[in-house]
Amino acid sequence: MNHREIIQKLKLLKNPKNVEGMARFGINSKYTLGINIPVLRKLAYEIHKNPKYSNCPTKLHKLAEDLWDSRIHEARILAGMIDVPNLVTEKQMDSWIKEFNSWDLCDQTCMNLFDRTPFAYNKAVDWTKLEAEYERRAGFALMAVLAWHDKNAPDTKFVCFFPFVKKYATDERNYVKKAVNWALRQIGKRNSNLKNKSIKIAEEIIQIYPSSKSAQWIAKDALKELSRK
Questions:
Q1: Considering 44, 60, 87, which residue would you say is the last residue of a domain?
Q2: Which range (18-32, 94-108, 141-155, 201-215) has the least confidence?
Q3: Rounded distance, CA 74 to CA 211, Å?
Q4: Together in a domain, 143 and 226
Q5: How many domains does the chain have?
Q6: What ranges in 50-173 are assigned the alpha helix state H?
Q7: Non-local CB neighbours of 105 within 8 Å, separated by 6+ positions
Q8: For residue 12, what pLDDT is reported?
C-alpha cells in the first residue's frame, strides 16, 4: 500500500455532498474529497498495522511526506495521523503550516502530530508571532492541544503562553481569535492553579482592551466557561 494506492482509495471515497457541507463550516473546498475524520482514522490504523510500515518508521515518515505533497485535503490530514513525531523536523513543521488553508487541517495536524514532536512548545510560541491567519492559529491551536494532551507537563510550561494570549487577543480574524480563546480555556481546564491564572488573564484582557471586540469576546467567553463550578 504505497501513497498512490492510498490516494486512489481516498478518491474512491469522495463525497461531493460532504464537501458542500464542509464548506458551510468554513473548510476550504479546494482539493477536498469530503471524507469524514473517523474514516481517515480507520485508514491510519490500517496503515500503522501494515507490515511494510509497522516496523519501519522511516518508510512511514516518507509515506506521510508523499501524502502531504499530493495537496489533497484528506491526504494531508491522514499524513498528520500517520507521521512519526520523532522524525519530524522543524523545517517540515514550518513548511507544512505555510500550506494550511483550513482550520480543520491546522487543528488536526497540531493535535495528531505536532504536539508530540520535541519542538512543540517552542513552535507554539514562535508561530503566534507569524502574520498569516492559519500560521498564527497554528500557534494557539498547538497551545490548546498541548494543554489537553500533555498530562505530565508542569504548570510553568503553560504560564509561559499567557503573554502571547494577551498580546494577540486583539487579532480580529475569526480563526485566530477562536484559537486564542481555545488556548486560554484549555489551559485553564488543566487544574485549579492554571484555572485561577487563566481567569486572571481573562480579566486583565478585558481591562487592557476595552475597545477590542475580539479581546472582549475571547476573555468573556473564557470566563464564562472557567467560572462554572
A1: 87
A2: 18-32
A3: 40
A4: yes
A5: 2
A6: 51-54, 57-69, 73-82, 90-97, 103-112, 120-128, 133-149, 155-159, 162-167
A7: 28, 73, 76, 77
A8: 95
pTM for the predicted model, two decimal places? 0.95
Report the SS3 class of residue 82: helix
- Per-residue pLDDT tens digits for 10-50: 999 999 998 988 888 888 888 899 999 999 999 999 999 99
Q: How far is CA 182 from CA 71, 91, 111, 142, 165, in A?
A: 27, 26, 13, 10, 10
Domain assignment present for residue 93? The answer is no
C-alpha cell at 136: 498564527
Q: Which domain holds residue 144?
A: 102-229
Q: Which residues contact 118 (CB under 8 A, 6 or more apart)?
A: 85, 86
Q: Which three cell numbers stand for residue 41?
A: 482514522
Which pLDDT score is estimated for 28? 84
